[in-house]
Amino acid sequence: MRMHQDQLTVSPETVRRLVDAQFPRWRDLPVTRVASEGTVNAIFRLGDRFAARFPLRPGEVGSVRTSLESEADAARELLGRTRFRTPEPVAVGEPGDGYPLPWSVQTWLPGTVATDEDPGGSVAFGRDLAEFIKGVRAIDTRGRVFGGRGRGGDLRSHDEWVEVCFERSGELLDVPRLRELWHALRDLPREDDDVMTHGDLIPGNVLVTGGRLSGVIDVGGLAPADPALDLVGAWHLLEPAPRQAFRDALGCDDLQWRRGRAWAFEQAMGLVWYYVESNPTMSRLGRRTLARLTADA
Asked: In terms of CB atoms within 10 Å, which end of the chain has fewer, N or C?
């Protein structure tokens, strides 16, 4: 089932034609579709070393190319800044036979996404995740600040979206209770300066090996934002004891921790109803995160 009404179709045959035409040096590499709950790109492996990523939503060619180039710049900025592996950008492909947009190639990272190997009970994983966030925060913002789009700025700017989520979730969730929680979270003051953040620490973007963090993917959103933004991983990924170890390792004060809860809430509310039929894994993630947040409350 399509996750988005306007979703583009990308087949292995299309990928094969595009790769052969634009990157003939990879003609001998097999193309394999990657089973993924990701909502932004269709992903295909090229041999053992590379991953080709094709945006799923239509867009203007120039705008999509600019976005892919920006994502590649972000990936280069993060590369090697922590001990955890992150993808390295390799190439940007052009629209071609059967696909209307630019697309990208990056290195393939070993490991299992946390959706498939749940590290939620691992204190060591919680500390690993905190170490990764510390490393990201240590990257110089070079005077950059939050760009004003998406999560990471003013919580109250998301009121309209959260209200849509409440309206769509009446038969799925305890909306009156969740309204009370959002009301308590949305007005939390901001005292921290922007820092560099990954921006989307959900299970599908975190790689696990032997119960430990081995890598982080989908790094194109690296940008300055509220430092509480990356705390969403505490509720998306961790049970209570590892969550506390994660918080202790980061040294979060109460206000920043509560703002992290707010960002996790805003993200989770959209997952439950939007993907209830088209991507049940993402919908269940939203439910689990909201359950953890209400338990903490």
From this structure: N
